[in-house]
Design a protein that fits this description.
With 81 residues, this protein is mainly α. Helices cover 57% and strands 6% of the residues.
Length: 81
C-alpha cells in the first residue's frame, strides 16, 4: 500500500475547510495508514510526518471545542506544502 501524497493530504484538509469532510473522517483516514504502517510503502518521509500531524485534528477539549483551530490546521498545511 502506498502512502498518501502531500497533495492528497492537503486535498482532504481543504475538504474539511469547505465542509465536505469532517475532521473525524480525515483523522480516521490518516489513522488507517498509521496503524498499518508496516504495510505502507513510505517513500516521502515529510508526507508521512504530515499525515501523522493531521491524524489528531479531531481532538476535542470539550463539546464543540477542538484542540486545533482552523489557524492551527492551516499552519500544518503550510509547513508541508
Amino acid at each position: 500500500m502506498n502512502q498518501p501524497t502531500r497533495e492528497e493530504i492537503t486535498k482532504r484538509i481543504m475538504m474539511v475547510f469547505n465542509g465536505s469532510l469532517t475532521r473525524e473522517a480525515v483523522c480516521a483516514w490518516a489513522v488507517g495508514y498509521i496503524r498499518n504502517d508496516e504495510q505502507v510503502c513510505i517513500d516521502d518521509l515529510e508526507a508521512w510526518h504530515y499525515l501523522v500531524e493531521i491524524s489528531n485534528i479531531d481532538e476535542m477539549l470539550g463539546p464543540d471545542d477542538y484542540l486545533f483551530d482552523d489557524e492551527d490546521i492551516q499552519a500544518i498545511v503550510e509547513k508541508y506544502i
